[in-house]
Amino acid sequence: MARSSVNGRGAGPEPAGRPAPVDAVAVLDQESDQEFDPQASGPGALTAARAALRLALPEPGSKFSQDDEWCVVAQPGGPWTEFRFHDYDRIFAVPGLYEKIFYDVLGCDSPRFMVGLLADALAAAGQDPASLRVLDLGAGNGIMAEELAAVGVPYAVGVDILTEARDAAARDRPGRYADYLVADFTALSAAEHDVLAEHRLDALTVVAALGFGDIPPTAFRTAYDHIADGGWVVLTIKDAFLHETDPSGFAAMIRGGIESGALDIVRRERFQHRLATDASPLLYVGIVARKRAPLPT
Ligand SMILES: C[S@@+](CC[C@H](N)C(=O)[O-])C[C@H]1O[C@@H](n2cnc3c(N)ncnc32)[C@H](O)[C@@H]1O
């Protein structure tokens, strides 16, 4: 089983970037005179790495499906190189690049937004955030863990299918996860099930990670099954995946969960996940729910 922890305390949360305007064939960032050390790790190093990268988007008239979006990036002293947005392994390997693309340039704010909804729901339910034990599925380099910690949820277990994501979380946000598993939730081993059970999880977060060839419905169901009844489920999904005609299986699974009473919806909000490379808004649905029972099959 590929598994490791990323313990060791970071200095504090990295502020989430705010939406930035997208410019024509835009070289959106100028070279920074900040000191940049590619070997460094932690929040300060992440800020410097973000600032040192330069990024350009395709012509504004060009439109790509979310599966095919790309940009070109120059690292300090390096050549311009193309990165497809779904090549997370390559993106996580470059310190600061994930934040540069999705936060600094395309204005993603989904983790902070969804954790805010969860914090409101916990307050309304009279539950102490410190009591939560979160499974963060599709954890990437740990932005959700950082946002959860900022509202008083210190215990999160990260899961991702990529070793590069786990390594980036350890590099960029050391100590934010109590544990981090590199695992495929469509085919978990008995040992991996045991590890998850030991964490006694009572909340699931899946932000910006469902659909688009990322996390399939079967993997979501496996993660859901590891959450205690009465626990919390926080997810975002592109609104198109919840339409009745959606072939991915998510619409049927979520609708079945709601209609059966298994998923007890507390908040449901349509919101701007980020901008596309042509500056059009990408709209997602954010859900905060209580798990009352297993999802119907
Ligand atoms: C857009 S990133 C989101 C990361 C994080 N949730 C955030 O909001 O910063 C999507 C993540 O899902 C992960 N992922 C894709 N398919 C997956 C799967 N089948 N199981 C687990 N993680 C997966 C990717 O490796 C990537 O780290």
Summed up, what is this model?
By secondary structure, this protein is α/β, with parallel strands linked by helices. 29% of the residues lie in helices and 22% in strands.
CATH level-two architecture of the largest domain: 3-Layer(aba) Sandwich
Shape: globular
H and E order: EHEEEHHHEHEHEHEHEHEE
Number of helices: 9
Largest sheet: 8 strands, mixed
Give the CA-CA distance, first to last residue: 28 Å
Task: List ligands, each type once.
Answer: S-adenosylmethionine
Tally of domains: 2
Lateral strand order in the biggest sheet: 1-7-6-5-8-9-11-10
Class from secondary-structure proportions:
alpha/beta
Q: Average pLDDT value?
A: 88
The CATH topology of the largest domain comes to: Rossmann fold
Could you name the ranges where pLDDT drops below 50 across 5 or more consecutive residues?
1-34
What is the CATH C-level name of the largest domain? Alpha Beta
What radius of gyration results from the CA coordinates?
A: 19 Å
Task: Give a verbal description of the structure.
By secondary structure, the chain is α/β, with parallel strands linked by helices. It has two domains: 21-105, no CATH class; 110-291, Rossmann fold, CATH 3.40.50. Helices cover 29% and strands 22% of the residues. It is built from nine helices and eleven strands. It has helices at 43-52, 88-92, 97-105, 110-125, 143-150, 163-172, 190-198, 217-225, 250-260; strands at residues 3-4, 54-56, 70-74, 80-84, 133-137, 155-160, 179-182, 203-206, 232-238, 263-275, 281-291. The strands form two sheets. The protein has an eight-stranded mixed β-sheet with strand order 1-7-6-5-8-9-11-10, sandwiched between helices. A hairpin with a 5-residue loop joins β10 and β11 (281-291). S-adenosylmethionine (SAM) binds at residues 88, 111, 138-140, 143-144, 160-162, 165, 185, 207-209, 214-215, 219.
